[in-house]
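A quick aside before the break. I want you to see a complete sequence-to-structure record at least once, exactly as it would be stored in a machine-readable document. Don't worry about memorizing anything.
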Amino acid sequence: MDDNGRRGVLVAEDDAELRDQVLVPGLRAFGFDVVGVGTAADLYRAIVGDRYRLVVLDIRLPDEDGFTVARHLRSVSDIGIIMLTGLDSTADHVRGLQEGADVYLTKPIDLEVVAASLHSLSRRIDAASPGVATAPALGWRVEAGGWRLLAPNGVLVALSMAERLIVKRLIGSAGAPVARDVLIDELAVHIEEFDPSRLDMLIHRLRRKVVAKTGQELQLTAVRRIGYMLAVD
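That is the input. The structure line, written in tokens, reads:
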């Protein structure tokens, strides 16, 4: 639950396999508190019972279309809405945004894109809230309990569990090198059956991911015979 007393993400998707085996566990792996429902009626009941911050909304729900749901949600709340649909025409995209969606994503889904969109939308909601001060980004830093990395240019990168553990440990060392064994132990404690040989590949993919998302290079370097070091300023 966040500082405003709201729960995280409500996923409204009638495809049970997509909802329960992909979206809900996948978004939890990116650090979100997620609850899944299969109908508009269940969505409305869930919102009455808990104050949700963000909704991932399928357009083709069995009892009410997502456009109508989005319009209703927008008329009564400031909840963040990500519309998720197989309808990819320009007209549908425009309609989704006109009805109140903040973000319109088409299937097949990319969990990393959905997570990054949720993080970005959450940050915009925070910035628009009364009494929340914003400031230019200075250096690399982590937010949302370490689940998102903020680049110096203000671009957010959603992190997986393994990436979060690595980045938090490296940033927490204040620019000093962290031994390989320490990083491996951190991963092994939190991730079942972690293969130590995966560490270098994980670091390599993290660097590439950050450059692709932000256009900036993460100063994460190997320190010979020790481990890795992250320069954050």
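Two observations worth writing down. The CA atoms of residues 140 and 232 lie 5 Å apart. Residues 141-230 form a domain with the Arc Repressor Mutant, subunit A fold (CATH 1.10.10.10). We'll return to this after the break.
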